[in-house]
Design a protein that fits this description.
By secondary structure, the chain is mainly β. The chain is 6% helix and 32% strand. Among the domains are: 59 residues, no CATH class; 127 residues, no CATH class; 168 residues, no CATH class. Strand 22 and strand 23 form a beta hairpin.
Length: 927
């Protein structure tokens, strides 16, 4: 979930920023009834004022994503615990061995080019012309060989093989986890896939271990390729490194190693700084005669400890090129702990010592770190995130980057010299797009707890690529840096709102070149000789350029190429909405719209599908067309679409910041020529209610019996009955009895059907002091009244409520997130995930039956009595009880990837749609 802005061009603007950008960009623009001296970017950002103004002012992009990641994790772990080895396989195997319905009927409708820069969808809240071009989801692993093969791993999307021409092929096979931590080519040419994303963010999922593919240019992974046993299962793996016949792994639970020539035999635990916080089941994997063999491990139930997951985090491990017995590790929690620091072993991992680094690196301020040795080991580089900054600023400051450092001795002891800081990287001299915002809430390294990569040119130890929010390059060992991949193009003088894609006009004519997407996570160098290239992975996918490429006078690269050609789909959706294509033109928001002739997505019949995406805005696609467009920028959240008109859309940004359009956010230039820059001409309007505590991805829904009646949730429940004709935030009414007594409590799921509504809440929603509850609403006349439900004697576990539903017969349903005892510790041992009530919530029954022990994210009660549930490992379906009285759950469709399904919806075409958080949107005919 890289993050996003209120509008991705509204980076923490205050009065001074108006002056700075006005000086940077001399493009005059006249707004209706406004100041004709404002530049386009200044004009747009000045209108929106400072970042995060809605629903309490959450702060900048980093603050938003920082909170959002935590909330995402809380849903799966509260009220506490970590996952035990072997548990993930049990859950995944349970899912894959269930009885199935629908055969292999799932169809991926988003495996196509997704254009973030389509010039036809430049309404006010679009990011089109920012320069990212074709995009996909977050890429957390990259590898490249000398012949031009590229291997890419999506955060929750598995592994793909491609080249500098794109043309990707899914090679994930039947491995049990598609959550990706790292991807590396071993010296023997085999490809190693470490599952379990490990960026310490809340949207990271545990994995099923490490897999080795002997022939990656032609082969496909399978479960038989797993290295070792269960020992690295149910954890996350940040890095794999190879040396002297061994592979080293940096994991959430210490440093491990394995023989790199085989998959047989168990992994060995080389070091963990706090072994008493590890489950005792891992003790048998300690290296005989080592420091760990004599360590004291925790009891079997240690995973119930709230802080256990934070006590053995290894962010990186590296091997000295000059001495393969010398292994170093960067260990520590991003917010700081007494064990944080650099560690080294001089005896191949038998004993370890904490290092006291010398020079400019503060040993008391070591956080999330990435290492990179030069090829001959003469230099060691490191990016260091500052726990002190996170703690001082609560994650809300302009940067948490301590700096980029080099040890010119190649030793982790140093002396270390800081060669880049936030102010150096964000200076005008570097060409950073964040220069105009430096110190105003969003500066380089503001998400250094999440965004990091580092790579040294194998031919030149002074040539380094570094990734934070942007991509930076130095060719002189850090004396000077160029922002070769700026955040976007909006703040540069070359930007023009009328430039077209691809990529953004003509750099040779002085227009902006294509850049990368923001928020960098992975990097690889491939090719050979003059054909060497660098490839980077970020929240928007995969981009490549020559290793020694060209730049413009601003220092920005002119030769980036997006490899997101539509053959790879690792898009991370939160929600999906479906509406029919309206066959006739209609008047909406002062504009004539003919949905049959919408650019790129129009059609004579069928449906339009909208989705909300992590860091890739809102998408719009006609499954029968050849392209997908982005009609909303930033993070996309929940989505609501009129089933009878697919251009009537409500798209959430974050924190219940809802935007409505009745034009598919595609303004007619003959009617609204300046809709992209002038809010008064926009065909999209912000209409979310003003609440004191909405979640990062806050829920809202329409009444199943009345598309014009909506419910939205924060600390209170809000009702409006104007439907898609709503134009102001004041149209919402707070429902009686719905305000939660503590402002820290917040609703997590809502549903409304006829005169009945139900909502789930939590607060606190994190491990410490976790509470949850349910309210039920009834409608009398036009008035809704809610009352609390007593769950104290019910079988409903003390877990996060991920989804709620109301059946046509008034039956209430709860879908519980978080695993019970077999997967994470916490209240709920032996209790399932789906519950129903037929008496207005007074009593509840566990209807989980044969459902695997897996979190539920969304639930729908269909009109025929069937129930469908989106889980962290796919979609489940229960037939109407009138058809099958025993309530058996089925796996819906056998070919849906084993990844996270966040939302399920029934479309007006009779198909069930699943929004996955790693493999796009899929559809299947309802059984």
């Amino acid at each position: 979930m890289g993050s996003s802005l209120l509008d991705r061009r509204s980076i923490a603007w205050i009065g001074v920023a108006f002056t700075v950008v006005a000086a940077l960009i001399a493009v005059a623009f006249t707004r209706g009834g406004g100041d004709d001296t404002l530049t386009p970017q200044t004009q747009k950002n000045f209108q929106l004022s400072s970042q995060g103004i809605e629903n309490g002012g959450r702060g900048g992009e980093s603050a938003e994503y920082f909170i959002g990641q935590q909330q995402f994790a809380d849903a799966r772990t509260s009220p506490g615990g970590i996952v035990n080895p072997g548990a993930y396989r049990a859950a995944a195997t349970g899912m894959t061995t269930m009885p199935t319905l629908g055969g292999s009927g799932w169809a991926n409708i988003t495996r196509r080019a997704y254009d973030a820069d389509d010039p036809d969808y430049r309404d006010y809240y679009s990011n089109s012309s920012g320069g990212s071009g074709l995009v996909t989801g977050r890429i957390t692993g990259l590898a490249a060989d000398a012949t031009g093969h590229i291997y890419a791993a999506g955060a929750a999307g598995g592994v793909f093989r491609g080249s500098t021409a794109g043309n990707w092929h899914d090679i994930t096979g039947n491995v049990l986890s598609m959550s990706s931590g790292d991807l590396e080519l071993a010296p023997d040419g085999s490809l190693w896939y470490a599952t379990g994303e490990a960026n310490t963010g809340g949207t990271s999922y545990v994995g099923a271990g490490v897999y080795r593919l002997a022939n990656p240019t032609t082969g496909t992974f399978s479960q038989s390729n797993r290295v070792g046993g269960d020992e690295l299962e149910s954890t996350t793996i940040g890095k794999l490194r190879f040396a002297d016949g061994r592979v080293w792994a940096a994991t959430l639970r210490g440093v491990w190693f394995h023989d790199a020539s085989t998959t047989a035999g168990s992994w060995k635990l080389a070091f963990a700084p706090n072994p008493s916080q590890l489950p005792s089941s891992l003790q048998s994997y300690a290296v005989a005669g080592s420091q760990m063999a004599a360590a004291t491990f925790g009891p079997a139930s240690v995973s119930s400890a709230t802080n256990a997951p934070y006590k053995n985090i290894v962010n990186d491990v590296a091997v000295d090129p000059k001495d393969s017995s010398h292994v170093i590790a960067a260990i520590g929690w991003r917010s700081g702990d007494t064990y944080n620091g650099f560690y080294e072993s001089h005896d191949n991992g038998l004993t370890w010592t904490k290092i006291n680094p010398t020079g400019g690196l503060d040993k008391t301020d070591i956080g999330y770190v990435t290492f990179a040795f030069s090829a001959n080991g003469d230099k060691l580089y490191a990016i260091n995130e500052s726990p002190k900054r996170i703690n001082q600023l609560g994650g809300y400051g302009s940067t948490v980057l301590d700096g980029i450092y080099v040890s010119n001795t190649g030793s982790p002891v140093g002396p270390w010299n800081r060669i880049a800081s936030a102010d150096k990287l964000g200076s005008a001299a570097s060409g950073s797009a964040l220069y105009a915002n430096f110190g105003l809430g969003y500066s380089p390294g503001v998400q250094a707890w999440y965004n990091q990569f580092l790579a040294v040119d194998p031919n030149d130890s002074n040539h380094v690529y570094a990734g934070l929010e942007e991509v930076y390059e130095t060719k002189n060992g850090g004396s000077n840096w160029s922002t070769v991949g700026p955040y976007w193009n909006f703040y540069f003088s070359c930007w023009n709102p009328n430039t077209l894609y691809p990529p953004n006009g003509s750099p040779q004519a002085g227009e902006c070149p294509q850049t990368t997407h923001s928020d960098q996570h992975s990097v690889a160098i491939g090719g050979s000789g003059a054909s060497q290239f660098v490839v980077v992975g970020n929240d928007g996918g995969i981009y490549t350029r020559p290793l020694n490429g060209t730049t413009n006078k601003n220092g920005n690269a002119t030769d980036w190429k997006s490899l997101n050609d539509g053959t790879i789909d690792v898009l991370q959706y939160y929600a999906v909405g479906i509406g029919r294509i309206n066959p006739a033109a209609h008047i909406a928001m002062g504009q004539t719209v003919n949905e049959t002739t919408l650019p790129d997505v129009g059609g004579s019949s069928g449906v339009l599908v909208s989705g909300g995406l992590q860091d890739n805005g809102g998408s719009l696609v006609n499954p029968a067309s050849g392209k997908m467009v982005s009609n909303f920028g930033g993070d996309g959240g929940d989505v609501l679409v009129d089933p009878d008109d697919g251009c009537n859309i409500v798209q959430e940004y974050v924190y219940l910041s809802m935007t409505v359009t009745q034009t598919c956010a595609q303004p007619d230039p003959s009617v609204h020529p300046n809709a992209f820059l002038d809010l008064s001409q926009s065909t999209s309007l912000r209409i979310g209610p003003s609440d004191v505590n909405a979640r990062f991805i806050a829920p809202f829904a329409a009444n199943k019996q009345d598309i014009n009646e909506w419910i939205a949730a924060g600390n209170s429940l809000w009702i409006q009955n104007q439907g898609f004709a709503i134009r102001t935030r004041s149209a919402w009414t707070k429902a009686a009895g719905s305000t939660l007594a503590d402002a820290g409590k917040t609703y997590t799921a809502v549903a409304m059907n006829g005169n009945t509504a139900v909502a789930g809440w939590c607060g606190p929603c994190n491990n410490a002091g976790f509470t949850r509850g349910v309210v039920v609403g009834t409608k009398s006349g036009e008035t809704w009244t809610f009352h609390a439900v007593d769950l104290s004697t019910s079988p409903v576990p003390r877990r996060y409520i991920g989804g709620v539903a109301v059946g046509d017969d008034g039956t209430l349903y709860l879908s519980m997130n978080g695993f019970s005892r077999r997967f994470t510790e916490g209240e709920g041992a032996g209790i399932g995930h789906i519950f129903q009530s037929t008496d207005d919530g007074q009593t509840w029954t566990d209807i989980s039956a044969n459902m695997p022990d897996v979190p539920g994210n969304s639930i729908q009660a269909l009109s025929d009595g069937s129930v469908v549930v989106a889980t962290d490992l796919g979609v489940l379906y229960r037939k109407p009880l009138s058809v099958e009285a025993n309530g058996t759950w089925y796996r819906l469709g056998s070919n849906l990837p084993l990844t996270v399904a966040m939302d399920v919806e029934l479309g007006p075409d009779g198909k069930i749609y699943a929004a996955t958080h790693g493999r796009g949107i899929w559809s299947i005919a309802k059984p």
